[in-house]
Amino acid sequence: MTTPAHLDWLVDTGQRLKTADGVEIEVWELQHVDDSTVLSAWAKHFREHYVDDDMLKKLVEGTGKTAGQFLVDTKFPDEKAAPGPSVRSGDFAEILVADYIEYKLGYWCPRQLRYDQKWNRNESTKGCDVLGFQFVKDGGVDPNDELFVFESKASMSGNKPINRLQDAVADSGKDVLREATTLNALKQRFLERGDTAPALKVQRFQDIADRPFKRISGAAAILNSPLYDETLISQTTTAGHVNATNLKLIVIRGEALMDLVNALYARAANEA
């Protein structure tokens, strides 16, 4: 598995915070720079969450639009009109977290199917934000297989820090209610595409009573650096979370993140 070059910019700072109830919070930093080669590859990777390039060519036919116009008008959340900007930042955060658990932690993380059939480009996709799967043995069933369900929240604009990690923890606690429908939707999409093997990998996690596995929960806050407030983040509590003993917490901070998000969408359209 080749790691995309932009993941070199996602760096573990080594800093660890503690929640109010003593749970460790990892602090990562997105140290992006103006490297056109890396940004172009990232834009393609990002674009293909919404529509792969082969399908894009077919969808553009008959519309009278260029590929870039089609993406901006039909697939990508709006840059300026609400709620487009918040959907953009939310999608970016989810995709970055998916990259993190796939390429940094080594989980299988199918996520393109989450974005490519949005009925409304300016709405967030329903269900669990990010699913990761890890198997002790491919094709087998082991009680140590892991289902990683991650919730992400972003704050990339404004001047006042808010505790988005606490928001992510709160929504993560609701994932147990969304898990079954999210797994079913993912399995169905694979079956509709004729992809039986990945559908069966998802199916392995649909009956924990008969086929036990480890359920890991995660909560992430993706923050523009001026909105990163250690004191506020450390007020987070995991009390009452249904999977508090298997809960991973991370914060990803970065400079000018909304500018990066908009530039990435623009490049994804312009280079299609």
Automatic annotation (TrEMBL):
Domain of life: Bacteria
Domain Anti-bacteriophage protein A/HamA C-terminal: 9-268
Protein name: Anti-bacteriophage protein A/HamA C-terminal domain-containing protein
Organism of derivation: Mesorhizobium temperatum
